[in-house]
Amino acid sequence: MKDAFGLPQSLLVLGGTSEIALATARRLIARRTRTVWLAGRPSPALERAAVQLAALGADVRTVHFDALDPASHETALGKVFAEGDIDLVLLAFGVLGDQAHDERDPSAAVRVAQTNYTGAVSAGLVAARALQTQGHGSLVVLSSVAAERPRRANFVYGSSKAGLDAFAQGLGDALHGTGVHVMVVRPGFVRTRMTAGLEEAPLATTPEAVATAIELGLRRRSETVWVPGTLRVVMSALRHLPRAVFRRLPI
């Protein structure tokens, strides 16, 4: 069960090698979290992450999870929930893709959509049902500011995040009053392996800053969290710009 401050004692990370997710896990372990499940494809990176978190004092386990295999999600997550209640599920998997390449190769674009949206819809619904069955818990979904208004430079990725964001908001409404809390997190440009080599956007942030915002959001039982918070105002303005003006912006 969560502590008096709304922080979880148990955590399931979907996307167990995500830098944002691991920064969040480290922060929560330093507070109260004692059991961590890392779900992802078996890899040396997943095992390293488990060892590093275990060194911080948590009981860390791994489970095979593939976002691109929705048929396996119920079985994979079922193994975790069969071992005991989970206070927090962090849906953190996703791919950025390569916009120029993806425009030329529709199959690559579809893979981005299937990972970021279709896989997340499947895993999100399975996790939500398990949380609802146990009667408590939070589902935190890593979205993106790109969901607010996809740009020419990354509309394949942005559209997949827009779908995920809308899904998570609707899921939160559907679960309202059930004891299950859904929180959507919208970071801007985050300095991670995924964005390495890309031109840094204004108001860039770090995995640790996103983790801090997630912790604060959990304490407040927020429904939407922007990282950094000033992006909420920036994106509100961009969202309402006339399309002809938006096209001419160097973004």
UniProtKB/TrEMBL annotation:
One of its GO terms (molecular function) is oxidoreductase activity. Keywords: Oxidoreductase. SUPFAM superfamilies: NAD(P)-binding Rossmann-fold domains. Residues 9-192 form the Ketoreductase domain. It is an enzyme of class 1 (oxidoreductase). Its EC number is 1.1.1.333. The keyword Oxidoreductase applies. InterPro entries: KR_dom, NAD(P)-bd_dom_sf, Sc_DH/Rdtase_CS, SDR_fam. NCBIfam families: PRK07904.1 (NF005912). Belongs to the short-chain dehydrogenases/reductases (SDR) family. This is Decaprenylphospho-beta-D-erythro-pentofuranosid-2-ulose 2-reductase. It comes from Streptomyces thermocoprophilus.
